[in-house]
Amino acid sequence: MTWSQILALGLGSGVIAGVVNNLAGGLRDRLERRGKTAAQTTDLAYQRERHSADLAQARRVRREDDIAGAREWSLRSLHAALGWLEAEFIDQHARDNDYVAANKNRPSISTAADVLTELENVAVRHPVALVRERAWRIYDQLDDRYNVVDGETVGEMSRQEGLAWMDELKQLIELVHVPEHED
Predict the structure, then answer these.
(1) Nearest by Cα to 134 from 112, 155, 149, 119
(2) Which of 54, 61, 75, 109 might form a disulfide with 114, Cβ 3.0–4.6 angstroms?
């Protein structure tokens, strides 16, 4: 082998080695970029998932706060309505049986219009749809009875209506007490 052949062989293998190194480096760079892109995509997906979970938790907390906040004023309204219904029921039906509830005082509200106002307050403002729906149902029944004039007299509750309305109001009060209900 001559010096020129050795030199050519050395240069040739160096060029080949350089080309191979260059190709391998390019391939390695592409693989690293893909790895970084995949990691960034995974990280972005995790961040989106975490953000979505945080928003859902914030919605749950706000809903629980809304329900807890509504509990006090809605119970006050519903108890006042129930107290008026019980007092009216006793005045109209229980006195015939010589029954007077010693533990019952006159309610804080004094007319059917006041009861309707309290029920409407709950039906419009309460954050739970089921509570609003039931309050509207009782409201509609009482409105039909007390705001519709039959002849020249405003209607009075029958014994069955009074018992049914008191039962529905008690169920509604229980529903407001239980915070686990869902829409």
Answers:
(1) 119
(2) 109
